[in-house]
Design goal:
The protein has 8 helices and 2 strands. It has 174 residues and is an all-alpha fold. The chain has a domain of 114 residues.
Length: 174
Amino acid sequence: MKQLFSPFIRSTLLGTIALVAFTCFGWCLAHNKFSSNTWTLPTSYLEAEYADFIGTAAFYKALSDGEITHFGEKSVDSLGAPNEANWNQYPTPDEALAFLCQTLVGLFGLFPGYNMSVLVGHIAASVTFFLVARIGFRVHALWAFIGGLAFGLAPYQFAQQPHHLACQYIWYLP
């Protein structure tokens, strides 16, 4: 009987699926996100070192509400600072990430969608490392898995979330 996939492809696919599960579990364990109620809370909020989170959350909320658009004017009347919040002074180079976060926030609400955006960054880093090691360098599946898990749950990732979502997306580094 002919096998559908070679052992290399089969171990790579199974490793990828397992890595997504382990990365999700590790992130949920680190942030205690095991119930639907905990997903409605941000991972941090008022700590001084994470103060940028409030502005970042407001940006993604304004995107999901349609108050601002991608590649367009970024002025939000509803924030009234004093007349409007004007975010046109600095470029927004991460429009693809903003679209992902806008979609998740629009579907699930502000904090659950934002938490999912953070988790997707961890998963992307883990899986990319694993696939580059496995396919690009032909590393044994176990070592590629361990490296992917370590990269996806690296302290740097946790240090940059949730206040600097763009800095937390490091999937392209491997």
